[in-house]
Write a structure and sequence with these properties.
The chain is of the alpha/beta class. It has helices at residues 43-54, 60-63, 69-73, 108-119, 139-152, 171-177, 194-197, 203-216, 234-246, 273-285, 303-320; strands at 79-82, 86-87, 97-98, 123-128, 157-161, 182-184, 221-228, 251-256, 290-293. The protein starts with 42 loop residues before the first helix and ends with a helix.
């Protein structure tokens, strides 16, 4: 027997989801007609991609396989994913790599800021992988990115989509003190599905995280999002809305779960557009200032336009107050 050892091409690429390798396959269902997007490839899309590559940045648009990447990048909208492309969690719905991440890149905050300036962004969304390996969960790195963007592009409004900072005391306070315009943390699903869908997280910890943001800075906009079609019941979604309103969350997003690979959690059903409209109507009735609910809704989809509407509605409410 002859063993061939490759010493030229470098280290082999590690599996994207090693923890899912031995799970049974879940066949990927054909998407219904109401979930259709155009293939990316416009000149502006390519320009956005070039800026992302030249600044050596990672985007959640690519890593999570977002269906809206063609539309967003064609408008020079990109959601930056900081602290690497490897996550310490293994959520059953997520396409981001799982494993042991690399050390933080101290130059990343400035590269993100440079990209924001080159893209001419009026509103930017910055998210991250979970970094349970770091003492502060990456909170200081978030703050450094916010600071670098403020310095490079003072008029750009900043939205952060953070991990839960579970068992990271003081981490949330660091991010809130950096003064992002919007603090977003996604619940992702209803509590009954956490054990199978989001096993590394705790539902009521996430609720408390969002509530704590308002305690630290009552003026800061808060936001959270979920996916439907994972197997949740309608009444569970309505209860989740109530939980978020108790935490005084301003903005709710609801979108259809789309299965990335056959090793991920299966799509229990494709929720029709009229059900999303119903959720939107109920959410507004429960007191959310802003709601985005549709099959293709994602946390950062149309985030700039939605933030402008959200800010205008608060201003209108304050103006109407006695």
């Amino acid at each position: 027997m002859v063993t061939v050892v490759d010493t030229v091409s470098g280290k082999p690429e590690r599996p994207r989801h090693p923890e899912k390798a031995h799970r049974p396959d879940n066949p990927i269902q054909r998407k219904p007609e109401w979930i259709r997007v155009k293939a990316p490839g416009s000149p502006v899309y390519n320009e956005t991609a070039k800026i992302v590559r030249s600044n050596k940045l990672v985007t959640v648009c690519e890593e999570a396989g977002c269906p809206n990447i063609g539309e967003c990048w064609s408008k020079k909208h990109a959601t930056f994913m900081i602290m690497g492309e490897v996550c310490t969690r293994a959520c059953a719905f997520c396409n981001v790599r799982t494993g042991l991440p690399d050390a933080l890149d101290s130059d990343e905050p400035q590269r993100v800021a440079d990209a924001v300036l080159k893209l001419g962004l009026e509103h930017v969304v910055v998210t991250s992988v979970d970094r349970d390996d770091l003492e502060d969960g990456g909170a200081r790195h978030f703050a450094q990115v916010i600071g670098a963007i403020r310095q490079a592009s003072p008029k750009t409004t900043i939205e952060v989509l953070t991990p839960d900072f579970l068992r990271k005391p003081g981490a949330l306070e660091v991010v809130v003190e950096a003064k992002p315009d919007v603090f977003n943390h996604n619940l992702e699903t209803v509590p009954s599905l956490y054990l199978t869908v989001r096993p590394g997280a705790r539902y009521f910890h996430s609720i408390r995280l969002l509530q704590r943001v308002k305690e630290l800075d009552p003026a800061m906009f808060t936001k959270s999002g979920i996916m439907v079609g994972l197997g949740e019941e309608r009444n569970e979604v309505l209860q989740l809305m109530d939980d978020l309103r108790v935490a005084d969350v301003d903005f709710l997003t609801i979108g259809q779960y789309l299965q990335p690979t056959k090793k991920h959690h299966k799509v229990a059903r494709f929720v029709p557009p009229e059900e999303f409209k119903s959720y939107e109507t109920i959410a507004y009735a429960k007191g959310f200032a802003m709601v985005s609910a549709s099959p293709l809704t994602r946390s950062s989809h149309h985030a700039g336009d939605d933030f402008a509407k959200l800010r205008a509605r608060r201003a209108g409410q304050l103006g109407a107050a006695p």
